[in-house]
Amino acid sequence: MLFLLYLLIFISFNDLFAQLPIVSIYAETLGADVTTGIIGFIVGAYSFSNLLSNLFSGLLVDKNGPKKVLVAGFLINAIILFLYTLVQTPEQLLIVRFLNGLSAGIITPAAFTYITLYNKSKQQNTGRTMAYAGAAVGLAAIGGPTYSGIVSARLGQPEVYMIICGLMVLGLVISLFIKPLQKEQEDDVKTTDSSVKNVFALLKNKGLLIAFFGSIAFAASQGILAYMLPLKASSLNIENHLTGILISTFGIVAILFFLLPTNRVYDKFHNEYVLPVGLIVVAASDTLLYLAEDLTMLFVGISCYGVGFALIFPSMAGLVSKHSARTIRGTAFGIFYGCISIGSFLGSSITGAFTLTPNEAFMSVAVVLLIIATTIIIVARRVVIHSH
């Protein structure tokens, strides 16, 4: 059962990662003019609408149960992904991209809510479960761009969207066959305590605030990494294809950490402490990237980043599960993924607005992460004592 849930997470994140190398190119083939800025709007439309639908999805999950939301999300997303093959103009692509972000944002909170509730019902180790879920995300981050780049080069961008659409259909089939959670079986009543009021209640929970602020900080650092790493490599006269290998290295290191006995760290130590330690490791990684003068140093820095990601992601998800009641778990995950979207937007946009160089960006984010990690450690002590 857990394998099927991990597969659903892999499929849902594949939608995002597989499109990364081809969206701007597809827009150009449809006649988008680089000078008008419409390509930037097309690329950013997904993240913007994704942010809008994350919270909405969480409310739906708490009201109707995660299985029903998964089924609806995969079905709608498959239809919208098929529309990519029919667009004829950049404006149509912009609309479809916006709708794609909305539909994709429905799926992820539902998938993580299901896996945490199922995990609790079976009394499994939450930390290790989140680690394997993180490995599924990492595999999507590596595999998605790889196959989409190859397929688009040989067949074209529409064929890539057909493959992603097919994966969504597979996700739909799996969602139809997974068992409803006990709560969904006991009653089919549409009334729960879930409402907008719960959002404010969740935002007062210090344990959840640690996860939310940690997710914004880490997502911002990821946005800066994606923006600045190719520029840093270029400044060192490193060939373009090696930049892709660098990013893959980060994913491989994270997956190894998730799957090897190192994943016991999530159950051995409190997530409230593992998260800031991960942020400190990422800050160290950014410092190494700032100091890097050759390819070897870049590999060391990006490998360190992979360890930081491996510490952070399961810890954040674990905190959301730990500090939210079952009846509002979906809303909590909706806010969590909304914070990730906010962080991704802030990281790249602020860096671009201040026209920072790669070295300035890496050093700046390292300082900010250290400040946030220190703050979280101070707050975490009170949260851990209170929870016990």
TrEMBL record:
It comes from the Bacteria. It is found in: Cell membrane. CDD domains: MFS_MdtG_SLC18_like (cd17325). The keyword Transmembrane helix applies. SUPFAM superfamilies: MFS general substrate transporter. Residues 1-384 form the Major facilitator superfamily (MFS) profile domain. Its main location: membrane. Keywords: Membrane, Transmembrane, Transmembrane helix, Transport. The keyword Acetylation does not apply. It is a multi-pass membrane protein. The chain crosses the membrane at residues 34-57, 69-87, 93-117, 129-148, 160-178, 207-229, 241-261, 273-292, 298-320, 332-355, 361-380. PANTHER family: QUINOLENE RESISTANCE PROTEIN NORA (PTHR23531:SF1). This is MFS transporter. The lineage of its organism: Bacteria, Bacillati, Bacillota, Bacilli, Bacillales.
